[in-house]
Amino acid sequence: MSAKTSDALFANVAFTDNRQNTGGKGGQGKPSDTKFNQEQQKQTTGQNQFGSRGAVRGAHTGGFERKVCFYCKEPGHLRRKFPKILSASVSVPAKGCCKVCSEDYTVSKKCGHDFDPSETAAGETDKSSLLLCEGTLNGNPVEVMLDTGCTTCGVRKSLVLQSQMTGEICHCRQFNGEIVELPVALVDLDTPYFVGKVSACVIENPISDVILGRIPGAKLDQADIAAAVQTRAQKIKDQRPFRPLLTARAPKLDIGPTEIAKLQEADATLSLSFERAANGTSVNGQTFVMKDGLLYRSNSQASTTQLVVPKPLRESVLIAVHDGIFGGHMGSHSTFKRLHPYFYWPGYWRETHQYCQTCDKCQRTVPRGKIPRVPLQPLPVIETPFQRVGIDLVGPIQPVSDTGYRYILTLVDYASRYPEAVPLKRIDTESVAEALMGIFSRLGIPGEILSDQGSQFTSELFQAVMKLLSVHQIHSTPYHAQTNGLVERFNGTLKTMLKRLMTDKPKDWDRYLPAALFAYREIPQTATGYSPFELMFGRTPRGPSCVLFETWTGSDGSSEPKIVHQFVTDLKETLSEMMTLAQENLIDSAGKAKGRYDKRSKPRSLVVGDEVLVLLPSDNSKLLLKWKGPFKVVQKKGVCDYVIELARGQEKMFHINMLKKYERRAQGDKQNSTAVSVIMGSVLEPDEDVQNIDVRVVPTMQTETVEDVHYNPDLEPERLEQVKSVINKHAKIMTDLPGTVHTIQHSVRNGDIVVNQRQYPMPFDTEKVIEDEVKKMLDLGIIEPSQSPYSSPIVLVKKPDGSVRFCIDFRGLNKVTIFDSEPIPDPESLFVSLRDKNFFTKIDLAKGYWQIPLDPQDKHKTSFRTSQGLFQFLKMPFGLATAPSSFARMMRQLKLAECGSVSFFDDILVSSVGWEEHLKSLDKLLTRLGEFGLTARPTKVEVGFQEIEFLGHMIGMGKMRPVDKKVTKILKLETPRTKRQVRALVGLAGYYRRYIPGFSQLMVPLTELTKKNKPAKVQWTDQCETAFQTVKQRLSEQPAVALPDFDRPFTVRTDASGTGIAGVLMQTDDEGHIHPVMYASRKLLDRETRYSAIERECLALVWAIDKFSRYLTGRYFVVETDHRPLTYLQRSKTTNSRLMRWALALQEYQFSVMPICGTDNLEADILSRLG
Q1: pLDDT for 611-653, tens place per residue?
Q2: Domains along the chain with CATH numbers
Q3: Whole-prediction pTM value?
Q4: What SUPFAM superfamilies does the annotation carry (predicted)?
């Protein structure tokens, strides 16, 4: 075969070369010795090192037509072109039978023709499809072809210098499978894919100057080429018609200035705005002006001009700024900021806020974390082991154990924290019940079982088993695993332990379970301080640490033997002591946990009839929760659980943390029904800045706003602005309308005894008063129509100003009501806490009783009759026997001490030493009132005073004195003529008896007139007149008492007369002046009037110390006296039982005696020892 023909075979050759070619970018290559490896030849015959046979399919074929002969199964020709074998009959043709290669590489065809590869390789090659680039060989420009199926490099012989020939021979396999020997030369090659020296095969006539294959250092990998292909699905999608976006209904854009002007004139809610525009009235730089027939509001300070929107177009504005595609359904504040620069109408902040709050999409998509969780309700501490246990199921566990277990039943005792775990193959009711029976057989039958609402625990079979064992079942609410948190936490710990233990043998996890349980039982629990094993069995388990200790120390760990009785006694004592300490630790741990949990909690409550959204699993995934609803609340159970009516009448109980109140938007004009009533609050009052957009709005029937708050006129301007800022921040709670507290409901417990009393006869002229009161309470949501069998009569009580108070006579209901023992605040203890305070703010709740809702189950018990029908209260009414206790309980829930405040029913007093502290305490209190849903009456809010009226006394500067207006009222009293008037005088003056020394003795002539045997028309004597005038004189002197300072000692003085006894509690100030803290006195009883004078003095001393015992117990004090009572008491204590009791009663006090007139050192020493 000619050289041309032979060399042409290398146009597309798959070389096999085991030589090391070195070189590359930045380096020189050096060839190494190579020997032809026959074994490698066998392994690579017909296949290159990249897994391709011969020329890679789809790669460079040197111009060969990709045709396959169906007869010989070889590519490059068709059988029909070989006429000599068309008639040949070969049953099974051999592969490649159409051609035979001769020794000189001449290819013969069965048809008789010779096959010249050069004609197809070199002569007819179309290089347009080859990967060609330019490079240099020994500095000469050459054409380089890339062949990814080649494993070496070939160069044209004419371009190689004789000096570059190495004398080596390279065995190369051509594309047709033949192996040839080619000389090797070391040449310099510079291409985009390889730079450096390379050992190349020298070819006589290759298809290109250089054939570059996959040699070391060559970068032949091509970047992936992405080709765009349209799939059938994409084609169908492209053929779909255009779908417009779903947006809110478009606002009214077809209205021009003329129509808007007409709507403005016809809108009654804008009448005052037109009036201000006509008068040119300006409030805080804000005026109403007419421009081109349209009404605008202009703000000179902000340089804004707002169009006043008439009522029919307001909804369109809200749709555009909130619901529209560019509105974004943003919050109230952001929506208002978008609206505020361009539009205005009376009450526009309130309507904007209400519109955003009632947006259905916003309510359904609010994140779960935005809904505040309610404060934690801790479970009761269980005292007896196995009194209550919690159970749960874990699984399915992967992988399944070798014995077929895939679930775990867990049980934890709430008293000892002792756990049990049983592997299960199935979790049907039978398997669970059988596993529980196994646990009960070892530890006993519990009294209560707490579980979730899994079908295994709620089935009829399981309930029957529990009933048979007398076990009470308790279920947690759906999707609220915190109820059974003890078991849930143990499940997590158990799974973590098993995961680590079964790392090497995952399918043996059930065999590791007992070991994991022992490890858990041995460790002391953080909550109890003891291990579950100790609390259950009364001894410490012998665990691995104990075994190791005994092994190393040689100790056997045994104790002295005991008799059975001694062992049982010691075990009982040990268990009792450990359980007591464990309970104390549990209570302390629960309190700390509640404190941490409640930091991010907020009290919430719902009322029967409210609509709510429920957080339930989505339709696509049980692990994804979404708000569904709205559903209706039909019943409240417990503190935080509510029964919700789901679809198709199904009722289910949920925890309030899974619920969100749904605010339904009023339809039509209802949402603007209060527009007329808010005009005065929005137009006449100064408008807020945009940054403080709690616009002051007066709701229906509201007559007082934040502007009615009374500030101390003597406050400095800077302090006045500071405290006004705090009050205005909470303007929404400043109203005379009652709110609704969310944390408590008043219940009437009467044992279901129906009380039905007939109505008292009422004057006909009072019908109008009753109708007005009933209508007012209906409008406020205080009462509702009723169909109750209960009924209590109405009574009308005249007020001092001549008006009538509407009341219900609940005396019949109160007789059968169970008493509530909630303690009532003590005014005396409140006064004591105000000793060192300098700033005071008083807040009075608006109709405090009406801010507490009634329990829906008891509201029918408060019904009353009128001519309009039967009504019942929704809020707690006045007159119920247990109402004060419920109100005191609600005020105690506010935790006013944390806000620097005290309260007596609905009167709240904020007090502090410094001004900054006062601002912080006031802000904290108002925030808490708002969180609880309470409101304060603005006209009774007094802010920033240094002396303030509280509970009928003036408090301030460390002293307490009578209220001036009440003293003036007493001074203006005329001489009483009837017994009733005398009682009123004694009661009014008696309220200030603490300021009048010897009040009881002084009032004896007047109190004698009030006895039953005295006539209704009193006989006014000189003694009565003297007492009457003396009381007036004492009060006119503006007496004051010092508030107690417990850092200073107290002084007690006593006195006795033939009609009464009296005492005074005093303290000395920094300047040495003595001030009274409290006066006390009473009349002598008939038997006490027969005491001797010295006995009466002893009685006065003992009674006064007992009266002031709250201040004197546990403290040192001084008794100032002429010491005769104490001397007599000391001498007579063994001869008179009554005096002996008095002497013993004084022994618990620590005091010394200071004589006032004359002293006897010996007697004083004896008397001081008596104290």
Answers
A1: 888 877 766 655 566 777 788 888 887 777 788 887 766 777 7
A2: 3-63+125-212 (2.40.70.10), 257-359 (1.10.340.70), 376-512 (3.30.420.10), 602-661 (2.30.30.140), 764-946 (3.10.10.10), 958-1039 (3.30.70.270), 1042-1171 (3.10.20.370)
A3: 0.39
A4: DNA/RNA polymerases (SSF56672), Ribonuclease H-like (SSF53098)
